[in-house]
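User: For my dataset I need records formatted as: sequence, then structure tokens, nothing else. Please produce one.
Assistant:
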Amino acid sequence: MLSEELLESVMHHEGFRANAYQDSEGIWTIGYGTNLQVLEITKELASQWMLKKLEENAAEVDAIEGISHISSARRDILIEMAYNLGIKGLRKFRNTLNFIRASAYEKAAAEMLDSKWATQVGIRADHLAERMRLG
């Protein structure tokens, strides 16, 4: 069992950093001095991180004005896009979002596919666009 004194000492000396940074040796680090270059995580931890981020993305998507009428399937597509692109990246899909606001889902899907993102993610974009069309 680890002592409280040890935990407090490491936390004090390492300091907490929520964002990745390069330490004095140029090694990418996060948290309380965790070396990201050698970090391995479990599938369970990765799933927990994913779920947390998806919940955050869902709240951000729900805050987009004018889309509260969409089906849960189409909402899921936007949440997945926000997960992949970040909410700022999703918000750059202005035409797509405007077509969604107008319930013009064929056009929204076409706009999704007519993007740099679609060329980067390939079949993922095809799948999401098809789901956008079908709802």
